[in-house]
Each structure stands twice: as C-alpha cells, then as structure tokens.
C-alpha cells in the first residue's frame, strides 16, 4: 500500500490511494463494435467518475475453439481458464448481452455454464442488455436475473437496458437512458466502494 505524506506546517497529512474496484465485463455480443458495448461504455464512464476502477473485458464470441468445444471446465484451454478466473475474481461483474429471440445468446450462457457454481456467490453483478424495442427489456428480469440467482450472486437491483432507437450506430444518445444510468449507479456506489475496500483489505 502506497502512503504519501505531505507536510503542511506541523500537521502531516497522510494520503492513502483509494482502492480500485476490479470491474470485469462479460460481453455476450457477437458484433464489434456493438450497441451492447456502447451501453456498457456509458456505464463505465459514469462509474469511473464516482470511484477508481480497473476494467477488464471478456468477449465470449472471441474465446475460440477452446471455449466453444468445451463441455466441462476441465476441457477448456489455458486462455479460456484465465478468462473464467478473471470473471470469478472480479469485485464487480457486468454481464452484458443483446436480446436474441427473447433471451440472451447461447455463447453468453455457455460461458456461465463453465463458471464454478459458487464462484459468484455474494458477488455484485450488474446486468445490462440491448434489444430491438423496449419490450425486450423483460430479458433483464425474466432471463438474466434468474441466471445469476442460481449462482447466489448479489445482482444489483438497478439494471440497464437500451433499445435500437436509443443509438446512433453504437453510440448511446438517448438522454433518458444516460440519466437512468447516472441515477442508478449513484444509488449503489456506496455498496461498490465498500466492496473495493473489502477486497483490498483481504489482499493486503
């Protein structure tokens, strides 16, 4: 831990850098760039204005044959194992996916089929999704949240959805969605800050 002492007269001031929240995005979109990651980028931009973060991303559609051909965890390649452990060890997991035929893509589900059953227990998980219209927002509560309930994850009550009309290409323009993201993250930032502090204490 780095401590910087600054002399102000006779009273030393000790500054301890705030612990960084290790954020891992599991991206379930097959497109690059994508509206899904456009939504996530806005979430991350707001989050980094609120507390220090360190971001990593797992693109499930780019994990290769060592992922798509694996039936059990023992079958994956070392690169895929690293991606799985990255998600399992995150302070905050952002699970992001587009809606295909009323649910998340199969590759997105396959990634979590390979995650250890209790690795996400009590882990904060933020859900994000994109779809063709507002009715697709139901995927958050009816498909994604039950998936992470199986893992006993701490799914954050606020979740974010944006429809195709909210974007110009892959850039999220709708100010109402921007506002929901800002307000939603403000409501849970204390929880996330505590999570980062707790993880830092355990690693010290």
UniProtKB/TrEMBL annotation:
Pfam families: FMN_red. InterPro entries: Flavoprotein-like_sf, FMN_Rdtase-like_dom, NAD(P)H-dep_FMN_reductase. Keywords: Flavoprotein, FMN, Oxidoreductase. Residues 22-164 form the NADPH-dependent FMN reductase-like domain. This is FMN reductase.
């Amino acid at each position: 831990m780095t401590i910087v002492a600054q002399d102000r007269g006779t009273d030393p001031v000790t500054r301890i850098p705030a612990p960084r929240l290790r954020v891992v995005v599991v991206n379930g979109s097959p497109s690059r760039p994508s509206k899904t990651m456009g939504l996530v980028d806005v979430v991350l931009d707001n989050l980094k204005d609120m507390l220090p973060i360190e971001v990593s991303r797992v693109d499930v559609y780019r994990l290769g044959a060592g992922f798509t051909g694996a039936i059990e965890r023992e079958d994956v390649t070392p690169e895929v194992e690293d991606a799985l452990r990255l998600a399992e060890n995150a302070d905050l997991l952002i699970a992001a996916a587009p809606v295909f035929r009323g649910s998340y893509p199969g590759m997105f589900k396959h990634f979590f089929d390979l995650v250890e059953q209790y690795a996400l227990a009590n882990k904060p998980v933020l859900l994000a999704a994109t779809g063709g219209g507002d009715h697709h927002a139901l995927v958050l509560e009816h498909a994604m949240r039950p998936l992470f309930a199986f893992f006993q994850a701490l799914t954050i009550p606020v979740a974010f959805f944006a429809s195709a009309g909210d974007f110009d290409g892959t850039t999220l323009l709708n100010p109402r969605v921007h506002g929901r993201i800002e307000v939603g993250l403000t409501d849970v930032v204390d929880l996330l800050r505590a999570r980062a502090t707790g993880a830092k204490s355990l690693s010290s």
